Amino acid sequence: MLNRNIMRKQINTLREKINDTYRTESALFVVSVIFRVSILIFFIWWGSVVGDFDGRSRTIFPSVGGDSADYTIVTHNILSHGVFSSDQDETRLLPASFRTPGYPLFLVPFAIIGDGYYDAALMQIILSSASVVLMYILARRFLSRRIASVAAWLFVFEPVSAYYANIVLSDTLYVFLQLSALVILFQNKRRLTAPDGLLGGALIGFAILVRPIGQFLPIPIAVGLYLLYRTKGKRLLQTITLFLIGVLLVVSPWMIRNYRIFHTPALSSVPAVSFVSYFAPLYYAHKTGDTFENAQHLFNSRVQENYHDLSFRSLGNVGKMNESVFRYIKEDTFGFARYYLIKTIPFYVTDGIRNVGYTTRLIQSDGTPPNYSDYLLSGDWQGLFRALRHVTTPVALLIVGSGFWSLVLFALCVGFIWGMIVERNQTRLFILSSFLLVLYYAVLTGPVAEARYRMPAEPFMFILAVYGALQIYAKINKNNETTLHYAKG
Fold first, then answer.
1. Residue (of 317, 320, 331, 323) closest to 284 by Cα position
2. Residue among 79, 175, 67, 187 at smallest CA distance from 124
3. Within a 10 A sphere around the Cβ of 365, how many other Cβ atoms?
4. Residue 273: is its pLDDT beyond 60?
5. How many angstroms separate the first and last alpha carbons of the chain?
6. How far is CA 266 from CA 323, 420, 431, 446, in A?
7. Which residues are CB-neighbours of 134 under 8 A, at least 6 positions away?
8. H helices within 51-157, ranges in order?
9. What is the DSSP letter of 164?
10. Which residues contact 7 (CB under 8 A, 6 or more apart)?
11. By C-alpha distance, which of 213, 147, 148 is closest to 469?
């Protein structure tokens, strides 16, 4: 009897310890799931009311047309024809190379179930909520529990990321894989192990196959591993080697496939298509005053002259795309670089709420919101202020949403500068790495910046912003007893 009481007491003590240790993680996960499921339920109902969200693709929530519909087409072709193709014409299914296979393969089991991808949305809700927890764990390791907690709660209720967790799009899966890899690889106090490198590399490889924007991530991650563990000697070399092997083991089959079909090992035609169909035409339209549609037709037609039986977005056309674009950019490299950088500003501060509202037909536009990056390019500050004073629904949403993200950006910059001046060793390295990751996604996203393209950077933006905001708060209050080094708390 005495032994049983002792055992019961030990079990209760262990339970209390577990609850105390993982209370925040559990709360973050549960609340995140509830919030995202609420959004799912609402839009399932709303979809039954309005039908087609985009009015033309004959798709219903959680598929909302555009990229979302494209993924469902590729998944259908994989299951029905065993071909990785984005063509809807089943009599002529050309091999696709614009999309990478990670996300369509993720959708395959849900397509087999055949419930309209609602199971996929539920799985993504779980992954999105797990990403919140992973973000919290990563920030707590290198900064403080307080910073990690506040940043994670901001991420829980960030409406755009929560919405896209319910949509048939690749962003949620990519964010989860990225954060999983970083949590495994960057341990701070725990000893470095070689298997961590292999597993982390495999996860980054899968992330690359989900969204090719991650294809350059292995380089900064390998550098980060070296800086963090440079005293580990031989073990460090083994870990970095296995990390790179893990990446190659996952992505090499797709590279081999592309080489055999398109004679290039490139992962995707996305970078070339982005430049020839968006970046260069946008700059041409800005510079000449022509419409974007005419500029896009001009650049696309140069590629279409000789592309024969390949689809326009094929890797087989990348050479012609690059030749067309870079010949034009070389004529005014500085001007294009200036345009590219200024047009990247929306990546940091765009609200995204308007796009969600328009896409789902939840908000009816009563006017076109001002394109503030265009005003910045022309230096027309008075024109920008006049446009913002003319309050319409889009303008109001722009002011509220972009106002919040502007504050995040300001606090982020303060946090980065303060961390570089004050912090040391691993904390300083983490702050630097987080800032560089934000820049990485901003630069690679370029002038066509939607809020969902910011999702992989948002965890690090929130972490740095909360860190910076706490420094500002402590400085304003001039509380000498409350140390400014919250990262040490």
1. 331
2. 175
3. 12
4. yes
5. 44
6. 16, 36, 32, 20
7. 176, 179, 180, 182, 183
8. 67-81, 102-113, 118-142, 145-156
9. H
10. none
11. 147
- Token reading at 44: 């399932």
Q: Which residue has the tokens 């192990």?
A: 193
* CB of 431 closer than 8 Å to CB of 447: no
**Percent of the chain having pLDDT more than 90?**
42
Residue 19 is which amino acid? N
CA gap 275, 325 in Å, rounded: 7
Rounded Cα–Cα distance for residues 65 and 61 (Å): 9
List, as one string, the DSSP characters of 414-467: HHHHHHHHH--HHHHHHHHHHHHHHHHHHHHHTTS--GGGGTTTHHHHHHHHHH
For residue 24 the two structure tokens come to 């925040």
User: Which tokens in the block code for residue 182?
Assistant: 């970083």
Instruction: Give 371's DSSP letter.
Output: -
307: its two tokens: 């592309």
d(CA 216, CA 220): 8
Rank 210-224, 396-410, 468-482 by mean pLDDT and report only the highest: 210-224
Contact 235, 192 (CB under 8 A): yes
* CA gap 175, 168 in Å, rounded: 14
Cα separation, 453 vs 274, in Å, equals: 13
Q: What are the structure tokens assigned to 284, written together?
A: 């041409």
Helices 2-50, 118-142: axis angle to 10 degrees equals: 130
Q: Do the beta carbons of residue 408 and residue 192 sit within 8 Å?
A: no
Among 279, 262, 253, 257, smallest CA distance to 313 is for: 262
Q: Average pLDDT of the chain? A: 84
Tokens of 193: 């192990």
AA identity, residue 369: P
Q: Where are the beta strands (DSSP E) in 289-371?
A: none
How far apart are the C-alpha atoms of 260 and 258, rounded to whole Å?
5
Structure confidence by residue, pLDDT tens digits, 122-155:
999 999 999 999 999 999 999 989 999 999 999 9
Please tell me the number of Cα atoms within 13 Å of 250 on its side-chain side. Answer: 23
Provide the pLDDT for residue 193.
77
Rounded CA separation 478/471 (Å):
10
CB atoms within 10 A of CB 479: 11
**What's the one-letter identity of residue 147?**
I
Say which residue the tokens 């399932």 belong to: 44
Q: Which of 321, 284, 286 is nearest to 300 (CA)?
A: 321
Handedness of CA 439, 440, 445, 446 (dihedral sign): positive
For 31-88, the pLDDT digits (tens) are: 999 999 999 999 888 877 776 665 544 456 787 778 888 899 999 999 988 899 888 8
